[in-house]
């Protein structure tokens, strides 16, 4: 059974306006990626930071819920507020659930408090632990929206928000609710960025997934929210046609070299959707720009799509938004699927064009690639996380 997801609310390095984001996506505009200092000592690194202001939380919800992460959630929610509140009115607050993904929640807002504790032996008066708990994004959104259905946050590293979409579908399948607000949020966090730097996985310059010159990832930040329902809404919608997930638990940070878990997730998604690999028109790759992830993903893609399929990584446009990355990339697929029928261009893969000869060759899309006008396009969006946690989503446009 298909489940419908309506227009997303999006905040990311490309902006917060769907038209603006669509234009940047299909032009391969990397202007949102900027070199910034102050995140890693002694280095200026390229980050996908959102440069505009985000709204303050309503007075009654601060300070308990106040964090940059939750302000991102609010910014995304306000973009689709009419749809969200209409769902609460239509189904009742008990029948609307919230499932979000995050990696670090609001911990960056409390980071200075730990330095204060170390220096003075006590917490500063501004410290509130509730900002950083993993449940914070869902708890805040439930309080703001007034929903009373299940509300929880998942944290499975880079697959968090893809798992949130699959969990939302499960809630609908089981009849626990009639609508689910799902997606994810992760904002720039010094702890996370320095953790990746300690793994020597951060690129100072723009990341170049699958290039022989790749040097690592760029971290980004984003919040993305969808309203998922069993029935199609009145506005533009796409279908969640299928999803697959696996957990090979190969290593804490390195992927299984031959892509066993990634292959399983993609094939499970295809089977769930009742599709063959040849039915997929374009794949949004995980494509981090790290040596091992790109090698694994190339092998996995070659195994599943031996005939070839146009594909691209969008992370040079947005940075890797960690717990929000999968929802962000699903939103970019949503945007691509709902463009005007005459606009059949695929998002381009941004890199230096120098393929790694040690990897299976992939068919990277360019601005010249076009979807077929004969059949509605179907897109696969892949996310492969630490700990061997893998997720694949399949999205299709309305028929």
TrEMBL record:
The keyword Transferase applies. Residues 1-397 form the Ketosynthase family 3 (KS3) domain. Transmembrane segments: none annotated. GO terms for molecular function: 3-oxoacyl-[acyl-carrier-protein] synthase activity. One of its GO terms (biological process) is fatty acid biosynthetic process. Pfam families: ketoacyl-synt (PF00109), Ketoacyl-synt_C (PF02801). It comes from the Bacteria. One of its GO terms (cellular component) is cytosol. CDD domains: KAS_I_II. SUPFAM superfamilies: Thiolase-like. Keywords: Transferase. Belongs to the thiolase-like superfamily. Beta-ketoacyl-ACP synthases family. NCBIfam families: PRK09185.1. PANTHER family: BETA-KETOACYL SYNTHASE, POLYKETIDE SYNTHASE-RELATED. This is Beta-ketoacyl-[acyl-carrier-protein] synthase II.
């Amino acid at each position: 059974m298909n489940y419908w997801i309506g227009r997303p609310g999006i905040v990311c390095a490309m902006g917060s306006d769907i038209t603006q984001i669509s234009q940047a996506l299909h032009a391969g505009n990397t202007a949102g990626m900027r070199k910034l200092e102050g995140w890693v000592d002694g280095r200026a690194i390229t980050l996908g930071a959102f440069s505009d202001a985000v709204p303050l939380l309503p007075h009654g919800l601060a300070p308990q819920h106040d964090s940059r992460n939750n302000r991102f959630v609010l910014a995304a929610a306000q973009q689709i507020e009419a749809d969200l509140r209409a769902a609460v009115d239509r189904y009742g607050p008990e029948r609307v659930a919230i499932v979000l993904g995050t990696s670090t929640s609001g911990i960056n807002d409390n980071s200075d408090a730990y330095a204060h504790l170390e220096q003075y032996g006590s917490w500063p008066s501004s410290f509130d632990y509730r900002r950083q708990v993993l449940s914070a994004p869902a708890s805040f959104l439930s309080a703001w929206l007034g929903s009373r259905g299940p509300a929880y946050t998942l944290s499975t590293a880079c697959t968090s928000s893809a798992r949130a979409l699959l969990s939302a579908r499960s809630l609908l399948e089981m009849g626990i609710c009639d609508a689910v607000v799902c997606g994810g949020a992760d904002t720039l966090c010094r702890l996370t960025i320095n953790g990746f730097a300690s793994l020597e996985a951060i690129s100072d310059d723009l990341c170049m997934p699958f290039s022989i010159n790749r040097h690592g990832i760029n971290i980004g930040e984003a919040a993305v929210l969808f309203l998922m329902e069993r029935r199609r809404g009145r506005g533009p919608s796409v279908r969640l046609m299928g999803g697959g997930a696996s957990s090979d638990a190969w290593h804490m940070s390195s992927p299984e070299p031959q892509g066993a878990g990634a292959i399983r997730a993609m094939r499970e998604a295809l089977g769930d959707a009742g599709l063959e690999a040849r039915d997929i028109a374009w794949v949004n790759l995980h494509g981090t720009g790290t040596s091992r992830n790109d090698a694994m993903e190339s092998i996995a893609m070659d195994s599943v799509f031996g005939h070839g399929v146009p594909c691209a990584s969008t992370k040079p446009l947005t940075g890797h938004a960690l717990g929000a990355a999968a929802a962000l990339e699903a939103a970019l697929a949503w945007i691509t699927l709902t463009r005007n029928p005459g606009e059949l261009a695929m998002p381009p893969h941004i890199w230096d064009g120098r393929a790694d000869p040690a990897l299976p060759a992939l068919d990277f899309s360019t601005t010249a690639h076009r979807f077929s006008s004969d059949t509605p396009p179907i897109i696969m969006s892949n996310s492969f996380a630490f700990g061997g946690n893998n997720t694949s989503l399949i999205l299709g446009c309305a028929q």
